[in-house]
Write the structure tokens for this entry.
Amino acid sequence: MILTKLFSRRWWFVTIFVISGVIVLARLGFWQIDRLEERKAFNQLVAERWNQTPFDVNQDTLPAEMDLLGYRRIQVTGSFDYANQVVLKNQNRDSIPGVGLVTPLILPDGRAMLVSRGWIPLDQSMPEQWTQFNEAPAEATVVGLFQQSQLLAGAPPPDSPQTQWFRIDIAAIQQQLPYELMPVFLAQLPEPGRGYEALPYREVPPGLSELSEGNHFSYALQWFMFAAILGGGYLPYIHYQEQRRQRLKTIAENGGVNPDAPLDVPAMT
């Protein structure tokens, strides 16, 4: 009986609206399932690359597509050129102002790679204080992650050498160095056993240290639940409205008297 009412003249428009709503909500649920599968595939890719033997810049040629080395640890051996290091301004750690220390690492073939060695507090960021953060010995094997040059379209290069920069623009920094810089820079990772408070402070990016599948599954359940509530609640709603409509019709046919109402019994005296 109720099913025949779904597409009656009274209910067809609402029925179409409800069916469309259920489809949209269910589609959102399946979209979240798809997102979950994409996230799992991404996590698998990151884990596989992270667990690979570090790519050795001294022995291997950089690929034409640097994205192939995304999320893979990179190893490079050379000597730090502390005389030409710079800092990256406006770097905060736990709301504490500071700078990022960036030092060229000169490779045996004469080329160099900028290495973002980590964060230091603002009160220790003056050039005369940088020597306390020199690694010993200067010749070192550094492990980190490749980062692309940080460009700002239309920004003119400085007219004179700078020790403070707002971004690691390799082409701009190249102009104040006597050797060729590689087209990417290295964000140095903390060495095994390095203390949490050691300066310069280095950390594994959160997205790599803790791979998560996010909330896609719970969101999918929510969308499916909304679809079930809308679709499952529609039939009882029609049933209630049709019964109410029938009662009102019956009352009208009885001259405004509700036949289901209790009879008035005179009070006994």
Notes: The mean pLDDT is 85. The beta strands are 55-56, 74-80, 86-93, 96-106, 112-121, 139-148, 164-165, 184-188. The CA atoms of residues 176 and 212 lie 42 Å apart.
